Amino acid sequence: MEFFHDVNIDFLGKKWYFLAFSLIFSVAGVLSMLFWHGIPWGVDFRGGTLVYVKFSHTPNLTEVRHAMDRAGLRDPKIQSYDQPSLHEALIDLDVQETNEQEALDKGKNTIIQALETNVPAGKQCGTPSVSGCDLNNASSLTIKNYLMDKDPMRLGTDADQKYTAQAQAIVGYRDKTLGGVLTSIDQLKGAPGVDPAAVASLNDGFFLSDFNVRNVEIVGPTVGKQLRRQAGLATLYSLAGMLVYLGFRFEWIYGVAAVVTVFHDTLITVGAFSLLAPRFEISLTVIAAILTLIGYSNNDTIVVFDRIRENIKLMRREKLSDIVNRAINQTLSRTILTAGLTFLTVLALFLFGGEVLRGFSLALVIGILIGTYSSIAIAAPILVAYQDWRIERGKRPAGMAVPGKTGTGKTAASAKAK
Q1: Rg (the chain; Cα; Å)
Q2: At residue 393, does pLDDT exceed 60?
Q3: Domains within the chain, CATH numbers bracketed
């Protein structure tokens, strides 16, 4: 299947337009990284605490931010999470602790205390923290201790085991069936494994907030620095590996052209994330996407290089610019078919994949577009520019045709005369 037959587009004749396009986006990204937004490292790389909060209604992010400010948390990153109908928000805090459990507890308690604005006076449930009385954020241990103290079921010696089962059933129904948020304690009536007497006693010791802290994730500052270093090394190693591979398969200038092309793609992709900060951050999944794109872009470049090498053998008397143009046109249908299909797939992932995969899929969308473009507009002109430079110095590049030369290096006219 081919989209084009006998196409003859002068891609190299438009190289200055391509160069201007690349310069605009590259410089904009570099300026953003240096002076505007910096590199928007996610919590994976800078360290911090991510708190996932489920609300009973659509959260007002402005009010949530004001609540964070009142609690002394300055400039938290707050955004809607997952599908809007799920009423979830992701709060990114700069809470960093060397002890993992301390960070988990501190991050969760900080958010709970900041968001609890409807704490009824006089609520006591046998725990030092008032937030322990919030049934939507109470642990099964807190609920069990309360039930043990009240003993609403009038149990005997096996009270500990049975109230543990009651507490686990309450928390399980709250989190798995109701999504983490109870709007009324009466919702527990008829819940599997929950005794009515236990439900009735909860009204005396618990109240309901309009949110539930579903999960807390932390990354320590030391781990974040280590991950940044490893991400940079992974990218550099992949570039070095490609340079060596293409140097053996073709010659070193092909490897240099491919590495420059991939560096161009990576720079524009990271620059795009900087320009779009703080909406998008560079996380571990984004690094995985960038490494994927390095291989994907290099694959497209190698396809063009292979055709150039074949055409050099068949068109020895043609100028290299004509050979390269011919190779690009011959592979154009293949490029559009493969890149187009992949682009539609990652575009669907970006539009419908949810918030968790949004950064990953955005990197793929940008990278596939730029990677396909650079295989044509960056890699190929580098080969021609290198040949022109070598001709000016009076040297013939190995394996490349020189304008007006035969395969033995003599001019066509002199060869014919002999």
Answers
A1: 31
A2: yes
A3: 12-42+220-403 (1.20.1640.10), 48-218 (no CATH)
